[in-house]
Amino acid sequence: MDNKKSHRVKLIQQALQDQKAIHLREMAALLDVSEMTLRRDLGRYPDRFQLLGGHITLAFDPTATADYRVPEQGIQHLEDKRRIGKLAAAFIKPGDTVFFDCGTTIPFVVDFIPDELEFTAVCNSLNVLLKLQQKPNCNIILCGGTFHRKNQIFEHRDESSILDSVRLTWALVSAAGVSEALGVTCSNFNEVQVKQKVLRQARHCMLLADHTKFDAVRTAHFATLEQFHVVVCDKKIPKLYRDVIQGNGAQLVI
Hints:
Arc Repressor Mutant, subunit A; 8 helices
C-alpha cells in the first residue's frame, strides 16, 4: 500500500474514533479524493470498514447492524468540526511551535497533521494530549497543574507557568461563543487565563469555531474578534460575521 493510501486509511480510522459513522461523501471531500477512490480503499479492508446506508462504519463495531441509519443532521456537526480541523492543520509548518487549546474541535486539527511533520506542540488538555502523542515527530509540552474533569484541562494556579518561557508561532484557540458586540467567550473561567496568555504571546492567533458558535454568548469573556489573525469556520458562518472578520483585516478560511 502506497503512502497516500496508508494515510487515507489512518485518517478514516481516526475519524471513526470520534463517532460511529461518517458519510462516504463527506469523508471523500475531507480526503480530497473521489467517492470511487474511497470505495476502493474501503474494499481492500473488509475486516476494518463497512458501508451501511452510505455511511462508513467500523466492521467490528458490535453495535452496528444491517439496518443501521445515521441521521444526516446528527453527524453533520462533527463533520463541520473535522473540516475545520483539516483547514487549520494546513497552516502548521515544520519547526512551528503551536498551542492547541482545549475543546472538541481542536483534536481534529491534530488528525490532519502529517506524521512526518516535525513541530512542537503546547497543550493544557487531556483530549488534545492523547491525540498529539500519536504524532511521532511532535515534541509535546504539557502545561501541568490541577486536572479538571469537566473540561479535561490542566489549570496552573501559580503566577508563573511554562507558558511564560515559550514563544509560539501559532495559538489555535477554540470558543463556545462569538458575538460581534460581546466578544469571544467560553463556558469555564478556568480556561480564560491560558487563552489570554497565548493570545498575547503568539505570533499568529487563530480562532476555530463552527457556525453554531456565532451570535452565541457564554459566561467567560477572553478576547475580541480583532485579536485573531485567522478565523476558521464552516461555510454556514453568518454573512454578518464574514464581513466583520474581513473588515478587521483577518483571514477567513471556510
